[in-house]
Amino acid sequence: MSESFPRLSARTRRFTLGVPRGFTISPDGGRVVFLRTRSGTDPVTCLWELDTETHVERLVVDPRTLHADEEDLPPEERARRERSREAAGGVVAYAADTALTRACFALSGGLHVVDLANGETNRLYSPGPVIDPRLSPDGRHVAYVCNGSLMVHDLTTGHSRALASPESETVTYGLAEFIAAEEMDRMRGYWWSPDGDALLVERADEAPVHVWHIADPANPDRTPTAQRYPAAGTPNARTELFVLGLDGSRVAVPYEEEYLVTAAWDSHALSIVTLTRDQRTMRLFSVDPATGASTLVREDTDPAWIDIVGGVPAHLDDGSLVWVANSEGGHRLFVGDRAVTPPTLQVRAVLDVDHDSVLFSASGDPTEIHLWTWDGHSLLPVSTRSGVFSGRMAGGVGVLSEQSLDDEGVSTTVVRRDGMAVPIPSFAERPGLDLRVSLGRSGSRELATAVVLPTWYEQGSGRLPVLMDPYGGPHAQRVLNRRGAFLESQWFAEQGFAVIVADGRGTPGRGTEWERAVLGDLATPALEDQIDALHGVAEQYPDDLDLTRVAIRGWSFGGFLAALAVLRRPDVFHAAVAGAPVTDWRLYDTCYTERYLGDPGQQPEVYEKSSLFADAAKLERPLMLIHGLADDNVVAAHTLRLSSALLAAGRQHSVLPLSGVTHMTPQEVVAENLMLLQVDFLKKSLG
């Protein structure tokens, strides 16, 4: 008997194992180093190298040969993987020198350096568990974080020393604080100078942050984990910057803003980007590393909020600044002071700068993400087929990763200078599902919508119960032109549902006005748009949808939206499964929540409008709440407090607590059975 889809999806980490990722191109374009597991069910990530001239691929590091114990991870590394949503093990991250001759990585808390030419790997001494090792550009030193200290190891002498050590147990040097990692996509806390003689280092002090406790009720003998969580309206960690020289010098780099967004240090400038607490002002500074003095280069303001875009700041060879900013209703690429993209092309991220060319991703149609280059004179499309693309570029060589509805999995190709395409194979498992997905627009707002029908269903043969399957929150999308986005939705459809996935206001790819429609209210627009999409699809499929049997499911913001739907609109939604839902936005973190709802101390009415507690007495439909008790992102208190409110109102509901499970639910058996239990609940609830 073949393996069920839920089990295979869980075992393959949603079919991500075996997919090549984490590419680094050598300066001459002759080699590409990357990460990939050895099969679609192997969770151990290896380091590989491709020779772009000979097309020969070589395994450089297999963690199994290093006898590393993946269970022996330091807590800081587990936290980093949770923040980055890393589901695999082994060498999940690495850093190389500029010439791509050496790479370093942490494995089970140990510090390793590999010679990429011959694969010789050495474990180096460290005084404790190693976090985020990074080689200096010249390859002579490795910096890493250990027990909160920023350490440097001299590869010539073999000597390790601390450049900065924490003054208290709440202080770390060189690590991104919770908010930076979870909400700003900044996973690092230090940056090497181009010459390798100094580092810009973040000092984070969590002393002001309130302490929460994450307990494991299934194991009452275990002490609850104390976690500092910056909930909306409460203090964040204090962050500072210092330039630390290998000669022992220490120069403070002061800034006034609440958030350090990112930093970059290249041959043109040491740059830092900051953001005010209200997120309406972003500033780019150029820093003198010798004195710490900062010069304002650019200031962007917005009455709602400023978006954080990856890959900037950067510079062309002539020193021109590469930046992304909101202009004329769009996210636009700027080179110097000039916008070089039209406002109708929504720039998603800057992926690389190669001498005088910029590689970036952008959307015209929000369901597609394409690659473009700016070569100093004109915009050139890199990807031409329909789909979702990402890539890298260096030495005149590109790496192109492609996904679409037409093809399974991820296709990765190296494009050489002469235009020859060299594939990098994916070892991912085939899902074994035929997709029946139609992308289009629905409703009065022309929402990007996917309709997923059972492959066995004949249109017009009978009305199917409907399952809305959204995320629905700002800055995230579900409706994209790639098969991987709809595998779970298709499996639910095969169980007898017409599944609808819709992206409402707040989602990216449609311009700043569309994204900012959720300002001050995370509930009303999101719910209105799901209803709008439902009715719009029903008009397109008049003989196929049974609107007397409509369910909704979701996780995280989608869980919030699912619970919201049955509480506020039971006339439309007849059952809901809410996984890890945010039920009271006062319990969620500062950066995300305050971006949309402001300070709860100043605008309590805004938070009440988006809270679920006041609606508890309205519940009249079946509701299943699911939550991992070890979740340190959306803590289990969200579900438990809503359950208490429902109980106080005498409203029947179901709660499924998951012992030892975080926000990611990576455990195989848990992930598989969660899908089966949801289907069973929805079928029974809808009759």
Automatic annotation (TrEMBL):
In the Enzyme Commission scheme, what number(s) does this protein have?
Answer: 3.4.14.5
Keyword presence, Hydrolase: yes
Q: Name one GO molecular function term.
A: serine-type peptidase activity
Keyword terms, alphabetized:
Hydrolase
Q: Name one GO biological process term.
A: proteolysis
For bias kind Basic and acidic residues, which ranges apply? 75-85
The UniProt annotation puts the region (Disordered) at 66-85
> Which InterPro entries would you find in this protein's record?
AB_hydrolase_fold (IPR029058), Peptidase_S9_cat (IPR001375), Peptidase_S9B_N (IPR002469), Serine_Prot_S9B/DPPIV (IPR050278), WD40 (IPR011659)
Domain Peptidase S9 prolyl oligopeptidase catalytic residues, every copy: 488-686
Give the top-level enzyme category: hydrolase
Task: Give residue ranges for domain Dipeptidylpeptidase IV N-terminal.
Answer: 107-372
* The protein's name in its UniProt record: Dipeptidyl-peptidase-4
Q: What is the lineage of its organism?
A: Bacteria, Bacillati, Actinomycetota, Actinomycetes, Streptosporangiales
